[in-house]
Amino acid sequence: MLDWTTCAAVERHPHKVSGVWLFRGTRVPVAALFSNLEGGATVDEFLEWFPGVSREQVNTALEHTSHSLGEPVPA
Which of 22, 57, 61, 75 is least surrounded by CB atoms within 10 angstroms? Predict the structure, then answer.
């Protein structure tokens, strides 16, 4: 499991969406990004479907994931 505590793009509150990690200032779970990408969606589609999430937040979350897993960040 990733340690999201050091990622500025996300937050977690015990009384907000059952305490899951969310994109900061939204009710959109970070897991929704990865589920959609795994399902074949693009980042642009995700941003269209979840307008409260910014491209910067998505990029930060993806970079955090890549760094945490020791993988290069896709160009």
Answer: 75
